[in-house]
Amino acid sequence: MRKILFLTDLHMTDAGQTIIGLDPAERLARVLDHALAHHGDAAHVLILGDLAHHGRPAEYERLAAVMARCPLPITATLGNHDNRANARAALPWLARDDAGFAQASFGWGDTRVIVLDTLDEDGIAPHHGGYLCGTRMNWLRQQLHETLEPNLLVALHHPPLVTGFDGMDAIHLSNAPELVSILSRQGRPAHLICGHVHRTVSGRTGVLSYTLLKSPCHQMPMKLGPGSSGLSVDEPGAYGIVLLHDSGPIVHTEDVFDAPSSVAEDPKSA
Ligand SMILES: [Fe+2]
């Protein structure tokens, strides 16, 4: 089975700046080192946006420096905190379709992996919300038309679904029904993998299953219902490990703690 590592919501800052006291560069380096030590056999690293916290050139340059330690191929898309032009200038591994959006499509074994760019720089969605314009939707339709693989994994920043975190649900993918409709009618099982919420969430919307992944840096506190989308908590950074099985994707998540966890075998356990 091909193994793919997933990162999302890196929120890189300028050197010396922190988010709730956390240095995104230090956190990302720790998570990436853990992922490479334990899953160095992965074929690819996919990054699901919010690459930088303010979208500044220096933030992307700092991110490029941290990711330079990664020997695996990298492909990234963008989130609501990003700036497309600044990311493009600094990150050679930013995905790119023919129209310049950070989108890509991979045929890996029995799975087609499609990466979508939900960054809205035209102010169509609510502030920090996501949007897929007609150009991007048509690109998706073309990829689906050409897909031969029996399984589909769609990777994007903004979830086209609600999670129970009201503040985040207000800024999800603003044209979610259109995307859900396209993916629900394309004729093969599909799983969505997203970022944005900074929390591990899994579920199903209609016929589509999904997983949302945590950030390597700061997480959403586990407070469902009303609450600001800006709430953050210092919990362990995390990443995703996806196995592309011929029956469909298997999604694992790993939290990375300050000290290594001790592993021991209990002879009475199965
Ligand atoms: Fe984020």
TrEMBL record:
Keywords from the UniProt entry: Hydrolase, Iron, Metal-binding
Domain Calcineurin-like phosphoesterase: 3-199
Family per similarity comment: Belongs to the cyclic nucleotide phosphodiesterase class-III family.
Name listed for the protein in its UniProt record: Metallophosphoesterase
Organism name: Mesobacterium hydrothermale
